[in-house]
């Protein structure tokens, strides 16, 4: 009876693992086969969690050399990013350009792909801020906004502060659609737009004015990244900056080892899975600080799992070992096709390397064990 129960537990957990592996690999790219060259990943295939504009960030392996371990010779790994336009939501404001850069999105200052900065504050299209006259509105990173109104409410005087010092001020009135657009010299570019806000309405008594503010958009002009031709990022070097794109390629050979990770920047890597002459490859990147914080929170869950496992009888407490032996034996004995279609087995083999995987496996293992015990 106990043997049958253990088999049921194993089967049930394998099904759960397949489901978890398909949902959880959000910071790894799609697995692709080396049988079809070149291998290319667009934005959505690299980092599905980011929802980047498709085909605006392209990573490509042109060719792989070597009979055993593989290597990417010079200029055979390329990385290209392209600008795409986004409409301002504020009336009277036109467009700005976004550029993906190593898995993140930045604003290309005045359409210049080599000069980029982050949006540090942005109201959604339907967001509204109710602000009393002369009240400071904290916009984050030391920026704050204040408005004053003319007696009839037809003109608003807008002031933007940085660390309590006035950065820029201007007027929003009917002539400019009640939208103030702030411009500044940023990284040597004169008249670059970095701030937009719209006064939707002003009401109240002369001594107690209140404004409804919408469509506020603010660029961090104190932290501008400038990219130049020849700059190196790990094994990649900037080869060309054109009017709407940046192109990089590897300036040194990148050696890939079977069933291992190889970094080609500080936090980007290729992960390889080999089966005979065929290789499966996917790009990956290390967790951000925010992701690491999420993983740290999962430690308390793992501790809880350990204490709960102690309450199980000996055969069930050894479940994880039994499952590992079961999967290792069956996967190693399988003659599987690796033509790019049957890659789900490789996902199971390598899903244990995903962040927080231990916690998820433990939770589902406990669920399956509890379920089967109740069925006995």
TrEMBL record:
Q: List the transmembrane segments.
A: 351-372
Which Pfam families did the record assign?
S-layer (PF07752)
Under which name does UniProt file this protein?
Answer: S-layer-related duplication domain protein
Q: Highest taxon of the source?
A: Archaea
Q: Which UniProt keywords apply?
A: Membrane, Transmembrane, Transmembrane helix
Q: Organism, per UniProt? A: Methanosalsum zhilinae (strain DSM 4017 / NBRC 107636 / OCM 62 / WeN5) (Methanohalophilus zhilinae)
Residues forming the S-layer family duplication domain are 47-272
InterPro entries recorded: S_layer-rel_Mac
User: Where do the record's region annotations for Disordered lie?
Assistant: 281-300
């Amino acid at each position: 009876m106990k043997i049958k129960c253990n088999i049921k537990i194993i089967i049930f957990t394998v099904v759960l693992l397949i489901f978890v592996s398909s949902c959880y690999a959000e910071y790894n790219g799609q697995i692709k086969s080396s049988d079809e060259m070149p291998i290319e990943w667009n934005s959505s295939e690299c980092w599905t969690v980011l929802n980047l504009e498709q085909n605006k960030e392209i990573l490509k392996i042109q060719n792989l050399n070597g009979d055993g371990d593989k290597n990417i010779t010079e200029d055979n790994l390329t990385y290209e990013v392209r600008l795409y336009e986004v409409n301002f939501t504020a009336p009277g404001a036109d467009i700005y350009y976004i550029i993906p850069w190593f898995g993140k999105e930045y604003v290309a200052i005045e359409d210049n792909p080599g000069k980029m900065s982050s949006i540090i504050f942005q109201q959604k299209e339907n967001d509204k801020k109710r602000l009393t006259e002369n009240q400071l509105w904290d916009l984050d990173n030391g920026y704050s906004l204040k408005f004053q109104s003319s007696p009839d409410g037809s003109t608003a005087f807008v002031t933007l502060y940085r660390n309590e010092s006035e950065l820029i001020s201007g007027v929003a009135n009917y002539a400019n659609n009640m939208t103030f657009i702030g411009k500044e010299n940023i990284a040597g570019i004169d008249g670059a737009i970095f701030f937009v806000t719209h006064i939707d309405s002003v009401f109240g008594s002369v001594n107690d004015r209140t404004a409804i503010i919408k469509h506020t958009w603010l660029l961090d002009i104190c932290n501008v990244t400038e990219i130049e031709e020849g700059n190196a990022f790990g094994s990649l070097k900037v080869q060309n900056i054109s009017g709407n794109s940046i192109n990089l390629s590897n300036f040194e050979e990148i050696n890939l080892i079977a069933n291992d990770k190889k970094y080609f920047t500080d936090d980007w890597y290729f992960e390889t899975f080999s089966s005979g002459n065929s290789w499966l490859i996917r790009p990956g990147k290390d967790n951000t600080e925010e992701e690491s914080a999420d993983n740290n929170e999962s430690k308390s869950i793992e501790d809880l799992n350990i204490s709960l496992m102690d309450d199980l009888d000996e055969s069930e407490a050894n479940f994880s070992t039994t499952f590992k032996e079961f999967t290792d034996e069956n996967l190693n004995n399988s003659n599987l096709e690796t033509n790019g279609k049957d890659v789900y087995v490789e996902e199971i083999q390598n899903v244990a390397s995903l962040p927080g995987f231990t916690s998820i496996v433990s939770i589902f293992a406990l669920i399956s064990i509890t379920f089967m015990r109740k069925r006995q």
